[in-house]
Amino acid sequence: MSISSDVLRDVVLIAVLVIAVVVLITLVLTRRRLLFRSRPTENLDGASEAPRAAVVVHGKKVDDHDARRRQIEVLSGRLGWRAPVWLETTIEDPGRGQTRKAVADGASVVIAFGGDGTTRVVAGSLAGTNVPMGLLPAGTGNLLARNLGVPPNRLESSLHIALTGRNRTIDIGHVEMADAPGAPPREESFLVMSGLGFDAEVMATTAPELKKKIGWGAYVIAGAGRLRGRRTPVTMRVDDGPVQQRKIRAVVVGNVGMLQGGIQLMPGALPDDGWLDVVVVSPRGMTGWLPVVGAVLTRRNHATVEHFRCRTIEIHADKPMFAQLDGDPAGKAQSLKAWVDPLALIVRVPG
């Protein structure tokens, strides 16, 4: 029995309509799946699964906490993040316990909101955790932030980097300092620079009120009054090399090389090269500082400015000297041993 052309036409038309409906339904379902995946999922209690940061904030470095906190919450929301956990440091705990709590609670990034000292403490607790550290630099020096390209005292820009920037893995320096021969050493970490002598003395004797008024210029004023001074005999051992003797005014061990104003104290220092850079300064009297300044500014060698690169260094002085860690006074020490922990910390930097 033959099928009429009208019946055949109707069958073809129905088949085409069925195929069109199937294609349309498939497109709609696919679009819905894509839209669903692009939105933050929710728990049974309605909590969003958007990432969440923790902010470890230095109580005395940040003014108007409530306003800054609200600003950070608003900016975080605009970037698709939940309101961050706010953890303030205390005299008893400058950030170690707060950082460990943030990691244990599952923070996607832990942000150090303060100066280099707060950053150093937070970094020491984040090392090896695979949780990145963000920077909201609000101190006087902010040297780590400057060396990594994070703008100091610009909250919106630095928060944007902390939440959406590129991860960069950097080294951490460690030091053991002892107050006297045979005394039990105290171990600390540093990200910028540590050292003994003139620079540490300046940092220890700079008036906090002056730092608040004129910033890092207060260090210049304090340093000008301490240019006179005798050199201290020390012995040094760089890596597995021989013991060397020097008479010094200062020794600085650095993980990065740039100071305020873009001055390169250690031009070859990189935060992720697996090395420590060392500068030994040995001027005689006040006039001896002139070639030191010239050597630093012109990046040329001079007998009073020596540069080393090492994995470890040990320094023993004839008498206790002022010590510093990332620009913070660290009391006095008669011996210092420093070593590098390569690529131990993840930091958010500009993308």
Automatic annotation (TrEMBL):
Q: Tell me if Isomerase is a UniProt keyword of this record.
A: no
Which Pfam families does UniProt cross-reference here?
DAGK_cat, YegS_C
Ranges that cross the membrane: 12-30
* Keywords, in A-Z order: ATP-binding, Kinase, Lipid biosynthesis, Lipid metabolism, Membrane, Nucleotide-binding, Phospholipid biosynthesis, Phospholipid metabolism, Transferase, Transmembrane, Transmembrane helix
Q: Where is the signal peptide?
A: none
Domain of life, source organism: Bacteria
Question: What residues does the DAGKc domain cover?
Answer: 48-179
GO MF assignments: kinase activity
* Cross-referenced InterPro entries: ATP-NAD_kinase_N, Diacylglycerol_kinase_cat_dom, Lipid_Phosphate_FormReg, NAD/diacylglycerol_kinase_sf, YegS/DAGK_C
Q: Which cofactor does it need?
A: Mg(2+)
Name the protein family: Belongs to the diacylglycerol/lipid kinase family.
Q: What is this protein called?
A: Diacylglycerol kinase family protein
The species this protein was found in:
Kineosporia mesophila
High-level lineage: Bacteria, Bacillati, Actinomycetota, Actinomycetes, Kineosporiales
